[in-house]
Amino acid sequence: MIRVHKAGSRWRIVLAGVLVCAGAAAYWSFHALRTPTPQLLRLADGTELFYLSNSKVEPAASYPRVREISVDGEVFIRATAGSQPLIVRSRLLHLTVVGESGLRVTARSNETGEEADVLYGRVEATKAYPSQQHDTDTLLAGEEVMVNETIDLQEKETTDVARLRAWSEALIASATRARESSRHD
Known about the structure:
Elements: H1 7-34, E1 38-42, E2 48-52, E3 56-59, E4 68-79, E5 86-89, E6 93-107, E7 113-127, E8 137-139, E9 143-148, E10 153-158, H2 161-183
Parallel strand pairs: 4-5
Antiparallel strand pairs: 1-2, 2-4, 3-4, 4-6, 5-6, 6-7, 7-8, 7-9, 9-10
């Protein structure tokens, strides 16, 4: 049995407990602020953008009259068919999305390479920077394009469709749940 001999000791123990609880709460709050949260942005034409909060997606100010978005980070795009193609711009890629399409864009401005993976639809990809080799690749379902500015390379490959589908479905579900729960708060 522990005996407290001084009245001040009891208050010190209580104060220490309060400080420990406050520190734990501050730690978890800070951690929660740093953890990216799933986001869903529905545009006026029905196009949907799914991404984490540490990514930046910006539709053109006159969207959908000008169907263009800028991306810095990682985003899954479910584009609707429109009277004009959807243009997706990043630091290194210029993507023209033709018709209804689903694609993942990984384009972080602090990295030397970027890529776009097509789950369904059609996407035309070119470099968005000056290059001696300015090719256009047409991507269909199951294809990807990778670009690296350091070595001035654009390469078309096949992508792992099952993995892309699983990733996109998980992101879509998370973003949709997050959006629904924020509506109920």
